[in-house]
Amino acid sequence: MRTYITHLPLCRETLSKEAKYIYVARNPWDVCVSYYHMVNNVNIWRFQDGTFDEFVDAFIEGDFGQGSYFDHVAGGYALIHEPNVFFLTYENLKKDTRGTVLRLAGFLGDKYFRALDENEELLQNILKWSTPDFMRSVVVIDFDKKEDETWKELFSAHSLSCKEGHEGDKTKYALVRKAKVGGWKEYFTPDHLARLEKKIQDEGDKASFMELFKDIRKEALALSSISK
């Protein structure tokens, strides 16, 4: 089985019947914080001196190099009933990792589900390898590794480095940071929350997928300046 991970949006026009797609949606508050740390850490974004307050506006407007969060998730959510699309939320993945892994195995094929259902040791290993602590140590981009064809062109064209780096090495970037749900509460001010809530409302039907995050949205709204 060949696998490919990407941040590119999922759309019906580019779906292949020969492939299976896994789309992981995460709430916009935590996504904003996660992206902020990425662009603030890696020098290619030229935002290492930028503040979270400045980034919030860029995130809301989709003006930070990755496009609109709402367009992206809405595109994936529109395909939720496609037989070769496995749509899930990061929050549910964290809440029930074991159940999600088993459902994903079934989606990929009966033989994968049976392999895990009949072999508890294998399932436990996969769960261990899926923990943030383990992934943080192995899902690392080495900017000095220019022989890797996947990154060769990008790394050769830019002198990439991190403000923090992985284990003190500024030429390495760990893709997994905190990997927790709710970290946004440590960053968003009541005004930030109000600005994002207004954006959600302005998106109208496109943001119907926000029902997936209704509990988090309710909490964010209660903490926002709107409720003051």
TrEMBL record:
Coiled coil: none
Residue ranges constituting the Sulfotransferase domain according to the UniProt record: 3-202
Keyword Lipid biosynthesis: no
GO molecular function, one term: sulfotransferase activity
Residues passing through the membrane, by range: none
Matching InterPro entries: P-loop_NTPase, Sulfotransferase_dom
The keyword DNA damage is assigned to this record: no
Pfam families for this protein: Sulfotransfer_1
Keywords per UniProt: Transferase
Family as reported in the entry's similarity comment: Belongs to the sulfotransferase 1 family.
Protein name: Sulfotransferase domain-containing protein
Organism: Haemaphysalis longicornis (Bush tick)
